[in-house]
Write a structure and sequence with these properties.
Strand order of the largest sheet: 1-3-2
Radius of gyration: 24 Å
Shape: elongated
Helix content: 55-70%
Structural class: mainly alpha
Number of domains: 2
Order of helices and strands: EHHEEHHHHHHHH
């Protein structure tokens, strides 16, 4: 059976020794064994648990939620991860709004080219370049709204549109007649 010292396991995952000590102190990753000198000894099973911890940690969820996921019967996983997706979406929306405000404050439209912002004007121009007329663009919005309503909302927000314009677009996009 493969065994690891705390330093070996930390190195394997690119973590600090103190991180593993912290995981031990919060009962997230306890070593399976202790030597006679009370040194921590981790097994392959511990390594696999740490792999799962690292994977979940990369999503940005809390150590408490990670412990809950790992120690549960997996019924909590979907709910916790969905909650994190919602948090990320909210954070991204706030960051896009901040980005738009900064560009407007600087008054430098050239900055749009170096950012990942797509404005309404740029998007309409791309659709027109692709051969879509006003009717084609309406159909595009209707299909987006039908297949991914939340994604459509997020996309419209990313264009920097005001809430009233977004509501108008989504309202007529829902009209399938």
């Amino acid at each position: 059976m493969k065994q690891y010292s705390i330093s070996q396991l930390a190195k394997k995952f690119g973590l600090s020794r103190s991180t593993l000590l912290h995981y031990d102190s919060v009962d997230l990753l306890k070593p399976t064994l202790r030597t006679d000198a009370n040194y921590r000894v981790y097994t392959q099973k511990d390594s696999e648990r740490l792999q799962r911890i690292c994977s979940l940690r990369s999503t940005g969820i809390s150590l408490e939620d990670i412990r809950h996921i790992i120690d549960s019967d997996n019924t909590a996983v979907a709910g916790i991860l969905q909650k994190r997706i919602d948090q990320i979406n909210t954070e991204m929306q706030k960051l896009r709004l901040q980005q738009n405000v900064i560009i407007k404050l600087l008054g430098d439209d050239e900055l749009l080219k170096s950012t990942k912002i797509i404005t309404k004007a740029v998007w309409v121009g791309l659709l027109q370049s692709a051969g879509l007329d006003e009717n084609g663009m309406r159909k595009w919005h209707m299909e987006f709204e039908r297949s991914m309503p939340e994604g459509h909302q997020d996309f419209l927000e990313s264009l920097g549109l005001h809430a009233e314009e977004i509501n108008d677009i989504r309202k007529w996009s829902q009209n399938t007649a």
